[in-house]
Amino acid sequence: MKKVKGKQVILSFVCLVLGFMISFSYQYAKDKATKRNVTDRQWQKEYEYRQQLIEQQKENRKLEEELIEKQQKVQQMEKSLASEKKTYTDLVKEAEQLRMYTGKIAVKGKGIEVTLSDASYIPSEQSATDYIVHEQHVFKVIHELLISGAEAIAINGQRISHRSYIMCNGPVIEVDGIQHSAPFVISAIGDPDVLTASLNIAGGVKDQLVNDNIVVKIVSKDEITLDPIFHTE
User: What is the dihedral of CA 97, 98, 101, 107, to 10 degrees?
Assistant: First the structure.
């Protein structure tokens, strides 16, 4: 009877241990499976995030390329506009210069005044024409001023242009049909030093005029204003 009870106790103990081991194994397997599931979900999430990040980086790179391309187009447009602006500016300047040369607009600037006067002493009436200013004398001065860079010229305040004509009419000269008497003041806008030097060259215009008994006076001016040409036709 005691042996049977001992066997029962041992059997119960074995069953208890076995049950504990089974329970432990089951719980361990369950926990491991749970951890594996959690790890798998985390990995899946990480993979999804990684893929999203890669896609976002691709999109950002594409946007950067588009931005660079648009910036290049903008730079090309800016260069084109700058070139067009310079062209327009040059055209405006050229138009202003043409208007200035043709006498269409008033001009102001530094320059010189060349006064041509008849000789103060005339030996006889027969030789009087040899001691007064003629149109060729005025022409010489104007021609020299133009080739020396004069931008605008006037005679006694009357603006002249490329179409102007000058002719003698007795003791006076006519400029585009308007009569002027001596002294003749020729105003020219340009570099005063250059214009004065061109007239004072040895054997040049001034010496030729003096040899023709013309009184020549050259004065530099800090500012000369010439009105535009007013056509009466």
Answer: -40
Report how far residue 94's alpha carbon sits from residue 16's, in angstroms, rounded to the nearest whole number.
114
Are 205 and 140 in contact by the 8 Å Cβ rule? The answer is yes
Give the span between the Cα atoms of 92 and 86, in whole angstroms.
10
- Among residues 141, 146, 154, which one has the least CA distance to residue 205? 141
Contact 138, 182 (CB under 8 A): no
Place of tokens 């005339």: 122
The distance of Cα 15 from the centroid of its chain, to the nearest Å, equals: 102
Q: Are 216 and 209 in contact (CB under 8 A)?
A: yes
For 95-123, what is the mean pLDDT?
Answer: 79
Degrees, nearest 5: CA angle 212-218-221: 160
Local structure of 169: helix, strand or coil: strand
Kindly report, residue by residue over 140-189, the tens digit of the pLDDT. 999 999 999 998 999 999 999 878 889 988 778 999 889 999 999 999 99
**Strand arrangement of the beta sheet that strand 178-181 belongs to:** 166-169, 172-175, 178-181
- How far is it, in rounded angstroms, from Cα 40 to Cα 46? 10
Length of the chain as a residue count:
233
The token duo for 71 is 């910036």
The burial of 97, by beta-carbon neighbours within 10 Å (0-12 exposed, 13-18 middle, 19 or more buried), is given as exposed
Span of 9-13, 40-44, 184-188, 212-216 with lowest mean pLDDT: 9-13
Q: What are phi and psi of 34, to 5 degrees?
A: -60, -45
The per-residue pLDDT for 231 is: 52
User: Which amino acid type is present at position 1?
Assistant: M
